[in-house]
Amino acid sequence: MVLHRAEQRIEHRRFAEFPEFLRDGDIVALNDTRVIPARVFSDDGRIEMLFLETVRENVWKCLVKPGRKMRIGATVRVRDVGGVVEEICPEGERIIAFQGAVDLDAAGELPLPPYFEREVEPEDAERYQTVFARERGAVAAPTAGLHFTPELLARIPHTFLTLHVGAGTFRPVQVEDITAHRMHSERFLVSEAAAAAINAARRVVAVGTTSARVLESCGLPLSAREGSTDIFIHPPYQPRAVGALLTNFHLPKSTLLMLVSAFAGREFVLRAYAEAIKERYRFFSYGDCMLIV
Hints:
The chain has 293 residues and is α/β, with parallel strands linked by helices. It has 7 helices and 18 strands.
């Protein structure tokens, strides 16, 4: 689905036609983060952990289930490596210090979104990574990038940013005043080459809300940097770096849907979503996508 903001017009096209919407001087910015097998069960099967990020060597910030069993001082074992809960974070995550390195490739599995409502299948190891995924660290795929093939990438001017997608990206907004919603911080990296390519472009086409968040956090002109962002983009925010946005269809009440509404306008987005439902577009991670121009 293509949303033409100037004319408030909706157009139905196939993804293979994406290059037709690029102009001379455009650069397509993609997120090259790679999803790690971050969903891990304790050796006794009683505790489920989502390894979010390293705090220091062998110390991880994790989401845990059930939380009542993981109070400060509680112990857990993963592949015979012992760990102890050092701290409980304000948002409920646990800081777990392990006695040695936890081999996630051996112990973990890909953390598919809960709304899949199924176990991981062998095909997910490839399907739930973009063809350009290389920087390990995400707990969810930058799903707008799943549409690209190496052949299509070769046809378009592009560069790569890195934002390691965290679980907080998908946390629904549960407050009446959306300005009170707190985003989890996510780590990003902008290389010298990416900054130079983006600064030389006439228009930046962001692939996915993750790329858009990096660009809007840093602004233009862009400089090479490594950092973290907790930017929450929602109306009436006006984009200052991203000229066009490719994104999947998102869950109601999500920060992702609010970001899209900031780019295209709430009423236009709601009209587009109603049409997407009518035309039987597929939503969420393995679904169809929307290009906002």
